[in-house]
Specification:
Chain A: Its main location: cytoplasm. The complex is a heterodimer of chains A (about 350) and B (about 800). In chain A, about 40% of the residues lie in helices and about 20% in strands. Chain A has about 350 residues and is of the alpha+beta class. Chain B is an alpha+beta fold. Classes of the chains: A alpha+beta (about 350), B alpha+beta (about 800). The complex binds zinc ion (ZN).
Chain lengths: ~350, ~800
C-alpha cells in the first residue's frame, strides 16, 4: 500500500504539474482527493492492514493528501496568475487613440464679457439692475436731459414703436429708474448690462443691436477722482494688468463734466500699434458726473448728493480682449466663431 | 467742421504748434480731431503757366499739342487731352520731374509720336476734392485766374500748402462751427492771443434801395437784419477765398454766394443773398407758412409747407424757407446786380423741425439748429457787405435794417470754489481757476470763494454752475485729477437670485454641450409664423414704426424661429451637429396698437440637430426626442423644479407625433418637439428638435424650492417589478400617475425599465415594465404589507387602463 501511495503521489504530481487550466485541475482534485477519489479508495483498503501498519500508512496517506492539496493550490494560483496576465495582455489598448468626446458647449463671448464685468463690479459693492428694452421716450431721453428738440438726439437715431415708446438706445434710462426705486437712499451703486438698439446699418463696426453696461454711483461727496479710480480699478481687473489711464473731456447730456476714458493700449502697452492707431491709447468707456437735473429727476437733491455714471460696450471690450475685427460676428452665431471662446 | 491750419494761424499764432500737436491739444481739451488732412499730397514741381498756342495732334483726334509758357527760358511742348484747354488760359503745369499725389512722377515722354514736356493738370490730379469742383473742372484741366503770374508754385496759388483738421464736434460745442469760435478755443488751450479782423471801416452808405422788415413770427425769428448792395459784378471769387472754401469743404459758386459762405465760416453766422430785384417793394416779411403753400427752392424742387414752416417772403410771395434754403425765384444768378443780404437769428427748434421734415440739411441749417450767436448777426452782415464792396464791385445801397424782439441779456453764472473742488476731487487753487477764465476770456470776479463769471454769448452751452466746473476741469487738465476709490458707507454687491439662476441655467446648458447664441430681437413676422406659438398664443408681435428692412420689422415673441436660421446657417457651413440655446427676452402684448410698455419675459430656447460627436469607436446616434427631453429633465432636476409633465400636442410646424407641451403643476410653461420635417427641410435640416420655456415659472419654482435635511432611511426598502400589457395608445405617463396615486406613501419611486411591442404581445398592445420601490420611514415593511399595496397598484391599473399583468 505504501508503494501504491507513493506511486499515486508521483503520478498526481506529474499530472498536476502538467495541468494547463483550472478545469483540468478541478478534475484532478476530484480524481485524487474527492470522496470517491483514489486516495480515499486506497484508504478504504486500510482495513486489511495490520494494526501496527495502519497508523503508519494512515500518516503517509495524510501526508500525500496534504501534499497533493498543496500542489493543487499552488498550481491553481499559478494558473490564475497566468490567466490574469493573459487577460491584461488581451486588454491592452492604444492609449494614443482619442478619448470618447463629451460634447463641449460654451457661453456666448459677449455674455462671458458681461459676466466678467458684473463680477468685477459686484466685487466692488455694486448691484446689478435691469430695465425694459422697450422704453418710454421720457426715461430714454427726457429724464436724461434730452428734451424732444435736443440736438444730441441726432447722435442716436432710434427705433420708435409709437411716439412715446421706443427700443432703448442706451442703458442709461436705468439710471433714473434705479434712483427712483432707491427712493432717496444712498449709496446707489448699480450697473446695468443689457441690449440696446439704434438705427444703424450693420457693418464691421456698427450693429443695429448691441450691448451696453451702464453704471451709476450716487452718494454724498462723490468726486470725479472716484470715478477715475473706480474705472481704472475695473479696467485693470478686466484686462488683467497694470494700466495707465487718462480722461478726456467729452459730452453726454446726462453727465457733466463728461469724460471719455482711455487706457494704455492692451496690445502694445502704449508704444503704438495698429489696434490703437499708433496713439498708444485705447478708448474704453464714456463717463461723467451725474448732471444735477438728472439727479433731481431721480429724486436726489443735487446740492446734497453727487454721483458718477459710466457706460461701456461689451462688444468693444471683447474686440479688444480677443482681437475680434467685425462686430457682426457676435450676432451671426457661426459655431466656428463661438467655439473659439469655449474655454472663456 | 473742417479747419484750415493756415487760416487759423491768422487768428492765433500757431508758431511752434504743428498741426499734429494742435490736434492733440484740441482732443485733450474735448474737441476731438478725427482726421488730419494734408492738402499737399506730395505735389512737387508744379508751376503756373500760360497756354500760348493750341494745335491739333497729328496722330490723335482727341489730343492737342500745346505751347505753354511756364516761366522757363523755352516754352514747353505739352500734349493735352482735356476738352477745355484753350489759348490764353493760365494753368497748372507739372514740369518734367514733377510729382503728383499717389506717387505719380511726370517725365518727358512721347504721346503718339509727339514729344510732351510735362502735363497740364486737372484739379483732381493735384489732389483737390472732386465733388467740390465745378463740372467743367471735373472733366477738364484747372483754369486759374488770368492775373495769376507765370512760373509760380502752383501749391501756393492753390492753397495746398495747408493742413485741414477735421473736428468731430459734440452737440454742445456749436461755437466751434466757426473759425472765430475755434480761434477762441485754441487761444484758451494754448494760452495765446486772439487776433480777429475788425470791420470798423466806415463805408459810404447809400439810401437808394431801402428795405422794410416785418417780423410776423417773433418766436421763430426774433432778430432779422438786412442790407442791400448794388452794382455787383457777378463773377468768380478770388482764388484765396476759393481755396479757403475748398479747404472747409464748401464748393465755390460765385463771388456773392462765396462771400456769404466765407463769412459764415468766419463768424458762424449763416447769411443768405437774395436778388433784390425779385423782392417786391423792398419788403421782407418773415412769417409762418400756410398749409398747402409751396416754395420752389434753389435746387428746383417744389416743397410743400406746413403751418410751422418759417418763410421769408416779400409780402406777396415766399422767396425762401428760413434758415434752410433760398427760393429759386430770388436766386442770385447771371444778371443779378443788386443783392439783399440776410443775417438773422432763427429759433433752433423751428429750423430743426423744418430741415428734418424736408430732409434738407445744409451748413446753414446745421448752425441755426444749434443756435447762432445773436451778437454776431450785425457784425457778420457788415463783414459781408464790406467784402461785396471790396471783391464784387458793389456799393452799399441801404443802411442796416434790423428788427429785433427783446434784448440780449448778459449771462452771469456763479461758481462756488468748494463745490468745484468737491466735484473734481482735487484741490485747485483760486489762482488757477481765475487763470482758466482769463484764458477763456470770460470776465470774472471772485468774492468769498464765489466766482461771478460773465459768459459771452458765443458760448450758449454755459448757463449753470456745473458748466463752469467742466470748463475749469478741461482747461485745468483732466490728467491732474487723481484716482481714488469711493469711501463712506459701503454696500454689499450681489447678483439678484433671478440673475444668479439665469447664469446657472446658461452654464448648465453649456456643460450639457450647448453653445449659447444671441439673435436679434427684431425679426420678420413671417419667420415668427413658421412655428405655431405654444406660449403667449394671444401675443401680437410689436411693430417698429419705421423698420429698416423686412427682416427686422417686429419684436420677437419666441426665440425658436431664429434658432432654425442659426442651425441652417451652420449646416450650410458643413457643421454636422448643432446644439444651441438662447436665453433672452421676448416681448408680449395683446394690444393691437401699443399704448404701454409690453411685458418683457425671459425665455429659454434650444435646438438640437445632427450627430453630436462622432467617434472612431462608434458613430453616436443622431439625437431623438428623448435625448432632448432627458436633457430638459436633467435641467429641471438641476434647478430643483418639480411637478413637470409632458403632454402630447400638435402645434403647427411641429411633428404631430413627437411634440409635447411642457407643464408645471398643470400650467403650460413650454414646448418640446421635433420640427415638422417640411419646416425642417425648408431650412435644409434633418431631424431637428427644439424646446422653449417661459422662464418665469421655472425661476419661481427654482427659487421657492426648499432644501431641508431628511434623516437617512434606517429601514430597508423592497423592490417589486411589474410587467403589464396595455393598449399601445395609453401614455406611460398616465400609467405612472396611476401607480403613484395607488402606491400611496409607501411607494418611494417608480422607474420604467422596459417598453416593447411585438407579435407575442398582440396587435395594438404594448408591454410596459416598471420597477417599484417600497419603503417606510419608521419600520421595516413586511411582505404582507408590500403585497397589499402592490396588489392595489395592479388592481387600479387593471381598472383604469385595462392593463393585464404579464406573468
Ligand atoms: Zn497699441
Amino acid at each position: 500500500m505504501r508503494e501504491k501511495l507513493e506511486s499515486l503521489k508521483r503520478e498526481a504530481e506529474e499530472k498536476i504539474r502538467a495541468a494547463s487550466d483550472p478545469e483540468g485541475l478541478k478534475e484532478l482534485r476530484v480524481k485524487y482527493l474527492g470522496k470517491k477519489g483514489e486516495i480515499t479508495s486506497v484508504l478504504r483498503g486500510m482495513k486489511d492492514l495490520s494494526p501496527e501498519e495502519r497508523p503508519v500508512v494512515g500518516a503517509l496517506a495524510n501526508e500525500v493528501r496534504n501534499r497533493l492539496e498543496e500542489w493543487i493550490r499552488a498550481k491553481e494560483s499559478e494558473l490564475e496568475e497566468a490567466r490574469l496576465q493573459a487577460r491584461l495582455k488581451r486588454e491592452t489598448v492604444d492609449v494614443t487613440l482619442p478619448g470618447q468626446p463629451r460634447p463641449l458647449g460654451g457661453v456666448h463671448p459677449l455674455n462671458a464679457v458681461i459676466e466678467q464685468i458684473e463680477d468685477i463690479f459686484v466685487g466692488m459693492g455694486f448691484e446689478v439692475a435691469e430695465g425694459p428694452e422697450v422704453e418710454t421716450d421720457y426715461y430714454n431721453f427726457e429724464a436724461l436731459n434730452l428734451p424732444k428738440d435736443h440736438p444730441a438726439r441726432d447722435m442716436q437715431d432710434s427705433f420708435y414703436i409709437t411716439p412715446e415708446l421706443l427700443l432703448r438706445t442706451q442703458t442709461s434710462p436705468v439710471q433714473v429708474r434705479s434712483m427712483q426705486s432707491k427712493e432717496g437712499k444712498v449709496p446707489v451703486k448699480i450697473i446695468c448690462p443689457g441690449k440696446v438698439y439704434r438705427r444703424d446699418d450693420d457693418d464691421a463696426t456698427h450693429s443695429h443691436q448691441f450691448t451696453q453696461v451702464e453704471g451709476l454711483v450716487v452718494d454724498r461727496g462723490i468726486a470725479m477722482s472716484e470715478l477715475h479710480g473706480t474705472l481704472l480699478a475695473f479696467a485693470e481687473q478686466m484686462f488683467g494688468e497694470k494700466l495707465e489711464s487718462r480722461l478726456r473731456p467729452s459730452y453726454f447730456p446726462f453727465t457733466e463734466p463728461s469724460v471719455e476714458m482711455d487706457i494704455s493700449c492692451v496690445q502694445c502697452g502704449g508704444s503704438g500699434c495698429r489696434m490703437c492707431k499708433y496713439s498708444g491709447w485705447i478708448e474704453i468707456l464714456g463717463a461723467g458726473m451725474v448732471h444735477p437735473r438728472v439727479l433731481e429727476r431721480g429724486g436726489y437733491d443735487s446740492e446734497r448728493y453727487t454721483g458718477f455714471a459710466f457706460g461701456m460696450g461689451p462688444e468693444r471690450i471683447a474686440l479688444l480682449k480677443y482681437g475680434i475685427d467685425d462686430i457682426r460676428q457676435f450676432y451671426t452665431n457661426d459655431l466656428r466663431f463661438l467655439r473659439q471662446f469655449q474655454s472663456v | 467742421m473742417l479747419v484750415s491750419y493756415q487760416w487759423l494761424n491768422q487768428y492765433v499764432d500757431l508758431n511752434g504748434v504743428t498741426p499734429e500737436k494742435l490736434a492733440e491739444e484740441l482732443t485733450r481739451g474735448g474737441i476731438e480731431v478725427d482726421v488730419i488732412h494734408p492738402l499737399d499730397q506730395g505735389v512737387e514741381n508744379v508751376v503756373t503757366g500760360v497756354v500760348k498756342k493750341v494745335e491739333p495732334h497729328p496722330g490723335a483726334d482727341r489730343l492737342r499739342v500745346c505751347t505753354v509758357d511756364a516761366g522757363k527760358e523755352e516754352p514747353l511742348n505739352i500734349v493735352c487731352g482735356a476738352p477745355n484747354v484753350a489759348e490764353g488760359q493760365t494753368v497748372a503745369v507739372a514740369l518734367p520731374g514733377a510729382r503728383l499725389p499717389g506717387g505719380v512722377k511726370i517725365k518727358k515722354t512721347k504721346l503718339r509720336g509727339v514729344p510732351s514736356e510735362g502735363m497740364i493738370c486737372s484739379a483732381q490730379e493735384l489732389g483737390m476734392p472732386e465733388k467740390l469742383l465745378p463740372k467743367e473742372q471735373q472733366e477738364g484741366i484747372l483754369v486759374l485766374p488770368a492775373e495769376t503770374g507765370v512760373g509760380e508754385d502752383a501749391k501756393a496759388v492753390l492753397g495746398l500748402e495747408d493742413v485741414v483738421l477735421e473736428l468731430d464736434l459734440t452737440p454742445n460745442r456749436s461755437d466751434c462751427l466757426s473759425m472765430w469760435g475755434v480761434a477762441y478755443e485754441v487761444a484758451a488751450l494754448l494760452d495765446r492771443e486772439v487776433h480777429l479782423p475788425v470791420t470798423e471801416e466806415r463805408m459810404p452808405v447809400g439810401k437808394t434801395k431801402p428795405v422794410d422788415v416785418v417780423l410776423d413770427a417773433e418766436e421763430d425769428c426774433p432778430f432779422y437784419a438786412t442790407q442791400v448792395v448794388e452794382g455787383i459784378r457777378l463773377g468768380e471769387s478770388p482764388r484765396w477765398m476759393q481755396n479757403r472754401l475748398l479747404a472747409a469743404g464748401i464748393r465755390p459758386i460765385n463771388n456773392v454766394v462765396d462771400i456769404t459762405n466765407y463769412v459764415m465760416l468766419e463768424y458762424g453766422q449763416p447769411l443768405h443773398a437774395f436778388d433784390y430785384d425779385q423782392v417786391e417793394d423792398g419788403e421782407i416779411v418773415v412769417r409762418r407758412g400756410g398749409t398747402g403753400e409751396t416754395v420752389t427752392t434753389l435746387d428746383g424742387v417744389t416743397r410743400a409747407c406746413d403751418d410751422r414752416t418759417l418763410l421769408i417772403t416779400d409780402g406777396t410771395k415766399p422767396i425762401g424757407i428760413a434758415g434752410v434754403m433760398g427760393g429759386e425765384n430770388s436766386e442770385v444768378k447771371e444778371g443779378t446786380t443788386t443783392v439783399l443780404i440776410e443775417s438773422a437769428y432763427f429759433a433752433p427748434e423751428s429750423i430743426r423741425r423744418t430741415a428734418r421734415r424736408l430732409g434738407l440739411r445744409s451748413e446753414a441749417s446745421t448752425r441755426f439748429e444749434k443756435g447762432v450767436d445773436p451778437e454776431r448777426v450785425i457784425p457778420a452782415l457788415t463783414r459781408a457787405v464790406e467784402l461785396m464792396v471790396q471783391l464784387a464791385g458793389g456799393k452799399v445801397a441801404s443802411p442796416v435794417t434790423a428788427e429785433r424782439m427783446g434784448e440780449i441779456e448778459d449771462v452771469i453764472v456763479e461758481l462756488r470754489h468748494n463745490r468745484l473742488t468737491g466735484v473734481l476731487g482735487v484741490q485747485v487753487e483760486e489762482k488757477a481757476v481765475l487763470d482758466v477764465f482769463r484764458r477763456l476770456r470770460f470776465p470774472t470776479e471772485v468774492n468769498d470763494g464765489v466766482y461771478r463769471v460773465q459768459v459771452p454769448s458765443r458760448r450758449p452751452d454755459i448757463s449753470i454752475e456745473v458748466d463752469l466746473i467742466e470748463e475749469v476741469a478741461r482747461l485745468y487738465g483732466y490728467d491732474r485729477i487723481p484716482t481714488t476709490l469711493p469711501w463712506g458707507q459701503q454696500s454689499p454687491g450681489a447678483l439678484t437670485p433671478e440673475q444668479r439662476l439665469r447664469r446657472v441655467i446658461r452654464h448648465s446648458l453649456r456643460d450639457a454641450g450647448f453653445h449659447e447664441v444671441i439673435n436679434y430681437s427684431l425679426t420678420s413676422p413671417d419667420r415668427l409664423r413658421e412655428l405655431e406659438p405654444v406660449l403667449y398664443k394671444e401675443a401680437r408681435p410689436i411693430r417698429i414704426s419705421m423698420p429698416m428692412s423686412d427682416e427686422r420689422k417686429v419684436l420677437r415673441t419666441s426665440l425658436v424661429p431664429q434658432l432654425l436660421e442659426t442651425a441652417e446657417y451652420n449646416v450650410h457651413r458643413r457643421e454636422e451637429g448643432v446644439s444651441v440655446f438662447e436665453l433672452a427676452r421676448v416681448f408680449v402684448t395683446e394690444e393691437k396698437k401699443l399704448t404701454r410698455q409690453p411685458e418683457e419675459r425671459w425665455a429659454l430656447a434650444g435646438l438640437v440637430t445632427g450627430a453630436t460627436s462622432p467617434h472612431w469607436q462608434k458613430r453616436n446616434g443622431a439625437p431623438d426626442f428623448f435625448t432632448v427631453k432627458g436633457m430638459l429633465e436633467w435641467l429641471f432636476e438641476r434647478l430643483g423644479v418639480n411637478g413637470i409633465s409632458f403632454e402630447a400636442a400638435q402645434p403647427e410646424g411641429y411633428h404631430p407625433g413627437r411634440t409635447a407641451r411642457i407643464k408645471q403643476d398643470g400650467r403650460v410653461i413650454g414646448v418640446l418637439g421635433q420640427v415638422h420635417p417640411k419646416t425642417a427641410s425648408a431650412h435644409d435640416l434633418d431631424d431637428t428638435y427644439v424646446f422653449e420655456l417661459d422662464l418665469e415659472p421655472v425661476t419661481e419654482a427654482a427659487l421657492n424650492r426648499v432644501i431641508r435635511y431628511e434623516t437617512l432611511p434606517k429601514h430597508p426598502d423592497t423592490t417589486r417589478d411589474l410587467a403589464l400589457v396595455v393598449d399601445e395608445g395609453i401614455p406611460v405617463g398616465e400609467l405612472e400617475k396611476t401607480i403613484h396615486s395607488a402606491g400611496g406613501e409607501l411607494l418611494q419611486s417608480v422607474s420604467l425599465f422596459d417598453v416593447f411591442t411585438g407579435e407575442q404581445i398582440g396587435e395594438g398592445k404594448k408591454s410596459v415594465a416598471f420597477s417599484l420601490r417600497y419603503q417606510a420611514g419608521d419600520r421595516t415593511l413586511t411582505d404582507e404589507e408590500v403585497a397589499e399595496v402592490h396588489q392595489n397598484v395592479i388592481q387600479r391599473l387593471e381598472e383604469k387602463h385595462g392593463a393585464v399583468l404579464r406573468k
